[in-house]
Design brief:
Strand content: over 45%
Order of helices and strands: EEEEEEEHEEEEEEE
Number of helices: 1
Structural class: mainly beta
Strand order of the largest sheet: 1-2-3-6-5-4
Number of domains: 2
Number of strands: 14
Radius of gyration: 20 Å
Shape: flat
Distance between the termini: 47 Å
Helix content: under 10%
Largest sheet: 6 strands, mixed, barrel
Length: 275
């Protein structure tokens, strides 16, 4: 946001989702850091952070006591609160957008999200960035539409299916919100049913494919980004032809790239292996 604009955001302000007018809660505190953008460095073939002169990033901590300790949101509140999801908000005389970067889990304190250099996880605001941290627990059932598939199999008993998903170049704060023991979902296709339990998480330096001025395409490092490889254990059917169907309705395939989420975080990942 434009430098100085964050002064309009005050503790006690009520924030509302500008898309569907969901009430998001009350501003508890506001911190500002110099705005940064993730840009492509063609010489070093990497994505690096660069400051944006005349702009600032605002870290806004929001609390909604109605969410605290409940498994479902109150009636009329359908905002899907997950780290990595972009929130579009308005307050008294201002608007902004930015990612949810942290959610308090079960009464535990939020992890520090501004590093020693004053960077908000290195997250970048282009012009209008309003980063929302909601101090809440939102055990929200993920309702999605999905067409059930007819799977022919001689084995009608559920089997354990273990598989891996790679999320490349995701923000550090998203990876930190994913934990072993979390249930995995597909917010678009899994009909609300779990796709399994995360049993292992491996973090590696962040990379993503990029095209450079010399015409080459290569995996470039991402400053303040990570590659996250998660192992998931679920149950489902395995057909004689080798088709895997979690929960008997969700088809799983290697090289399938989709949006996945836990109760607390959302990210795009690719299935890399099925055991």
């Amino acid at each position: 946001m434009i430098q100085g604009a964050s002064e309009r955001i005050k503790p006690g302000d009520q924030l509302v989702d500008t898309v569907k007018n969901y009430e998001l809660g009350t501003v508890v505190s506001v911190e500002t850091v110099p705005a940064q953008a993730l840009i492509q460095d063609h010489e070093d073939k990497a994505f690096v952070l660069a400051g944006i002169e005349g702009y600032e990033d605002a870290l806004v901590t929001v609390e909604d006591p109605l969410y605290r300790g409940r498994g479902l949101p109150p009636a009329g509140r359908g905002f899907k609160l997950r780290v990595g999801v972009t929130a579009y908000v308005r307050g008294s005389g201002y608007m902004g957008s930015g990612p949810v970067v942290s959610i308090e889990r079960g009464g535990a304190g939020m992890e520090k999200i501004i590093d020693r250099n004053g960077r908000l996880f290195g997250f970048i605001s282009v012009i209008d960035l309003l980063v929302i941290v909601v101090v809440a627990v939102m055990g929200f059932a993920l309702y999605t539409k999905n067409t059930q598939m007819a799977i022919t199999s001689t084995n009608t008993a559920d089997q354990t299916i273990t598989y891996q998903i790679l999320a490349s170049g995701i923000r550090t704060y998203v990876a930190e919100a994913v934990r072993e023991g979390d249930q995995l979902f597909d917010p678009d296709r899994s009909s609300g049913g779990t796709l399994g339990t995360i049993t292992d998480i491996q973090l590696m330096p962040g990379t993503k494919l990029a095209e450079f001025d010399d015409g080459t395409v290569a995996a470039a490092t991402v400053e303040d980004g990570v590659d996250m490889l998660i192992t998931v254990e679920g149950t489902g059917l395995v057909s004689e032809s080798g088709r895997y169907t979690l929960n008997r309705v969700y088809e799983l395939g290697v090289n399938s790239s989709r949006t996945f989420c836990t109760k607390y975080a959302e990210f795009i990942g690719t299935v890399t292996e099925i055991f």
